[in-house]
Amino acid sequence: MDPITTTILAALVAGVTAGVTEVGKKAIVDAYEGVKKVIKTKLGEGSELLKAIMGLEAKPESDGRKAIVEEEVAAAKADQDADILAAVTLLQKTLAAHGDERIQKMLRSEGGEQIMRGRGGLQEQWMSDSPKGKQVQE
User: Fold this and answer.
1) Could you read off the pLDDT of 69-113 as tens digits, one per residue?
2) Cα–Cα distance measured from residue 42 to residue 99, given in angstroms and rounded to the nearest whole number
3) Degrees, nearest 5: CA angle 39-106-123
4) Of 7-11, 20-24, 52-56, 94-98, which has the strongest mean pLDDT?
5) Please, are residues 133 and 44 in contact by the beta-carbon 8 Å criterion?
6) Helices assigned H by DSSP within 1-138
7) CA 34, 127, 39: angle at the middle one, nearest 5?
8) d(Cα 117, Cα 39) in Å, to the nearest integer?
9) Alpha-carbon distance 45 to 25, whole Å?
10) Residue 58 CB-density burial (10 A; 0-12 exposed, 13-18 middle, 19+ buried)
11) How many CB atoms are located within 10 Å of the residue 50 CB?
């Protein structure tokens, strides 16, 4: 699973997880809404990716809906958009700070790709133990 879909799914799971504090839930919801806002701004309110995300919100356990989000991420090239990736990275950091153990595991294991931003330029590091094989750092 791509890192955008994984992060969105982790945020949806975190929203219903008992181990997350109210402050943590608020931070996660705010960061999650930020991702959706950037997607809406970049791709339009009626974008297929936004529709797919809303479908996943209704049934986060659905493998079919996860696959549709992943398909729409690829179709929209959302994983190549710097603004969307920045919003997803903020959500990942928020989930890492406030998510419970289940969320942490989900972020580490699902898909094997991580997006990390920092100072400097884009760096790609290939990971042999990853199903997708790639870690992107900027």
Assistant:
1) 999 999 999 999 999 999 999 998 998 888 777 787 777 765 444
2) 27
3) 60
4) 52-56
5) no
6) 3-15, 22-43, 48-58, 63-76, 82-98, 101-109
7) 15
8) 18
9) 25
10) exposed
11) 17
